[in-house]
Amino acid sequence: MDKRTCDSQDVEVRKGPWTMEEDLILINYIANHGEGVWNSLARSAGLKRTGKSCRLRWLNYLRPDVRRGNITPEEQLLIMELHAKWGNR
């Protein structure tokens, strides 16, 4: 069975890397309107991306509280202690 969207619109979906312009559109839209139903957010913001793509881009890269960089020595020690206690679960 073919998986299709339930939209009556046939909008071409953009694939591949996000552009800086798309990132700014998404950031500004969420700043003004907040997070919500991602499929309608993608359409309302004027992005030719899927709702899932917008959600993943926001949650994994664009959110202001996403930490980047290496873990601290304290975090590494905590991971090792918890792994010693609980193992690979």
TrEMBL record:
Source organism of this protein record: Solanum lycopersicum
Myb-like domain sequence ranges: 10-62
An individual GO BP term: regulation of DNA-templated transcription
Localization (cell): Nucleus
Name of the protein described by the UniProt record: Uncharacterized protein
SUPFAM superfamilies, per the entry: Homeodomain-like
GO cellular component terms attached to this protein's record: nucleus
Record keywords, A-Z: DNA-binding, Nucleus, Repeat, Transcription, Transcription regulation
GO molecular-function term, one example from the UniProt record: DNA-binding transcription factor activity
Magnesium is among the record's keywords: no
PROSITE patterns, A to Z: HTH_MYB, MYB_LIKE
Pfam families named among the record's database cross-references: Myb_DNA-binding (PF00249)
All residue ranges annotated as the HTH myb-type domain in the record: 10-66, 67-89
Family annotation (SMART domains): SANT
The keyword Nucleus is assigned to this record: yes
